[in-house]
Amino acid sequence: MGTLSAFVIINALVLTTREKQDWLSLLVFIVTFIFLILIVQFFRYPKRSATRNENYVIAPADGKVVVIEQTTESEFYKDKRIQVSIFMSPFNVHANWYPISGKIRYLRYHKGKYLVAWHPKASTDNERTTIVVEKDQNKTVLLRQIAGALAKRIVYYPHENDLVKQGAEMGFIKFGSRVDIFLPLTAKVNVQMNQKVTGKVTVIAEL
After folding, report:
1. 191 vs 160: CA distance, rounded Å
2. CA distance 61 to 197
3. Tens-digit pLDDT profile for residues 77-136
4. Strand ranges (DSSP E) for the chain?
5. Would you say 178 and 146 are in contact if contact means Cβ atoms under 8 Å apart?
6. What is the rounded CA–CA span in Å between residue 72 and residue 95?
7. Residues 99, 84: contact at Cβ < 8 Å?
8. Contact in structure between 168 and 98 (CB atoms under 8 Å)
9. In terms of DSSP H, where are the helices of the chain?
């Protein structure tokens, strides 16, 4: 509503301060209208049915797979894990969902920089939130919401020890950003590099 109000006020001011509707008034209308459409698209929340299965790790976000590699996760596990990273452009839905059901075992918010989301150090240097969801039998998945160059705020809903459901909304990242998923080495990854994935729907891996 704030964006819509700003759109109306700006265009009303331009029209009332100009003697006639000239090229400047038209330009202001076009620019503000495009901006309004982009904001509405960015904050949309699609209605989808989640792909639920106790062995599946479903996509926590819309976007493109930009990393699939074995790496050392240094904040929580401090050992080798499979990292899958999903880059969200400003044109993607930016809501985030839980990839598995379980208990929130660990949650930390970190202030940081705003490097471009695909930068190698974005995972450790940028503003980010680390969330670990623990399933039965001590199986866990670590998620990291990472702010990008345009993103200036990460929103997350859980608290430690909350019980969460696969496919439920986990949070939101404003504008271009990334979500990293850290999986056990025994996980079977079902996606490929540069593949476009759909949050709540695409099966990222099987535990």
Report:
1. 29
2. 8
3. 999 999 999 998 877 888 899 999 999 999 999 987 766 666 666 677 788 899 999 987
4. 56-58, 63-73, 79-88, 95-97, 102-110, 128-134, 140-147, 154-156, 163-164, 169-173, 177-183, 188-189, 196-197, 203-206
5. yes
6. 27
7. no
8. yes
9. 2-17, 23-42, 122-125
Residues 171, 155 contacting (CB under 8 angstroms): yes
The neighbour count for residue 92, using CB atoms within 10 Å, is 20
User: Confidence class of residue 203 from pLDDT cuts 50, 70 and 90?
Assistant: very high
Is 177 a catalytic site residue?
yes
The residue behind tokens 């404003």 is 174
Q: Give the integer Cα–Cα distance in Å for 95 and 110.
A: 19
Query: Of 5, 89, 101, 177, which one is the catalytic site residue?
Result: 177
Q: What is the pLDDT of residue 8?
A: 55
In angstroms and rounded to an integer, the radius of gyration of the C-alpha atoms of the chain is 20
Q: How many CB atoms lie within 10 A of CB 53?
A: 13
Residues 6+ apart with CB under 8 A from 26: none
